[in-house]
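Attaching the record inline, Q. Sequence:
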Amino acid sequence: MTTAIQTLSGTRTNERLSAIVLAAFLGLGLVFCAGFAPAAALHNAAHDFRHTQNFPCH
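Structure, as predicted:
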């Protein structure tokens, strides 16, 4: 019985670690892309996103 509990606990730890690594990778990727993108490209992307959400912007 304790072996099963230890196995489940280990699996949860691995899943948490995987989630943290994936979130960090995606977050750093977004920061890297936004940091090196031209300002006009960022503005156009934000503008288009506002339109897709039916949010009036002009």
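Residues 25-58 form one domain. The chain has a mean pLDDT of 82.

More tomorrow.
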